[in-house]
Amino acid sequence: MSDDANSDSQRNGTSSQSNTPPPTADNIPAKMIEHFKAHKVDVAMWLMRCLAVVFTFFYVLPIFGTPQSAFNKVLLSNAAVSALRLHQRLPAFTFSREFLARLFVEDSCHYLMYSIIFFNVQPTFLILIPIVLFAILHASSYSLKLLDIIGQNSWWGARFLISLVEFQAANILKAASFSEIFIMPLAVVLTFMGRAGLMTPIVYYHFLVMRYSSRRNPYTRNAFAELRMTAEALANRSPAMVGNVVRGAIAFVSRLAPPPQPAPAQ
User: Fold this and answer.
1) Measured distance CA(52)–CA(82) in Å, rounded
2) Residues 109, 26 contacting (CB under 8 angstroms)
3) Dihedral, CA atoms, 104, 107, 112, 114, nearest 10 degrees?
4) Phi-psi group of 24: left, alpha or beta (phi > 0 → left; psi -120 to 50 → alpha; rest → beta)
5) How far apart are the first and last CA of the chain?
6) pLDDT in tens, 135-168
7) Helix (H) or strand (E) holding 101
8) Are the CB atoms for 135 and 52 separated by under 8 Å?
9) d(Cα 181, Cα 207) in Å, to the nearest integer?
10) What pLDDT is stored for residue 6 in this prediction?
């Protein structure tokens, strides 16, 4: 009796599933509009990230406008994404020590500061690399949600590209972190060349300290550790004079590192 009931329920379930109409081209726009209305901030961030990728392409190949214009638009797109993300994560603004402490530990605050630091600096592609890498990673993730609304088997080419991005997510985050580190000496060079303000390397150093101390993203901290191990190995293989210079540089950078942060209370 139980086997007959199970088989009947399976047949009923199969028939009910077969009676459910698959997504059609007619109801897809309505579903997309409904999703856009329900997730306005997420969609706005997705659009800004896509624009950041497009403007980076226009910076490399200045088909429309100038490289300076494309460079500034990438920074503005990144600033808009960071501000919207802060709006999602933080409570209503209050001028208090607790609010400011919570504000400055947010990664979105770090990258809002990043856009402000380099807005008046002469365009350099290295500055755009962390922005465009994060934009590609997050835009791809949200694009997959939008493709799922359209249908599971739709746009297989786009799904394949998104799967490649997700497969390389760890390498993308690592590349962004190394870029953040290498921008520090670049900021110093740009300042001596008169292409950046005197405060640019100082303010960027504080940005790098915040990235090093980030609780959500350990990749910058890990990148510093990898660079230190590589430099120490180089010092051990080099002549004594070169090794001493490298060890002195390691000691200098280590002194600039912030103290270890205590684990957040559970």
Assistant:
1) 12
2) no
3) 100
4) beta
5) 52
6) 999 999 888 888 877 776 667 777 888 888 888 8
7) helix 97-104
8) yes
9) 10
10) 43
Which amino acid is it at 48? M
Alpha helices in 151-218 (DSSP H): 156-167, 169-192, 200-212
Let me know: does 187 contact 201? Beta carbons within 8 Å.
yes
What pLDDT sits at residue 246?
Answer: 84
What's the sign of the alpha-carbon dihedral 208, 61, 77, 163?
negative
Which is nearest to 128 in space by CA: 185, 64, 77, 165?
Answer: 77
Question: Side chain identity at 95, as an amino acid letter?
Answer: F
Rounded CA-CA distance 242/235 in Å is 7
**What is the C-alpha to C-alpha distance for residues 174 and 45, in angstroms, rounded to an integer?**
22
The Cα–Cα gap between 23 and 202 comes to: 55
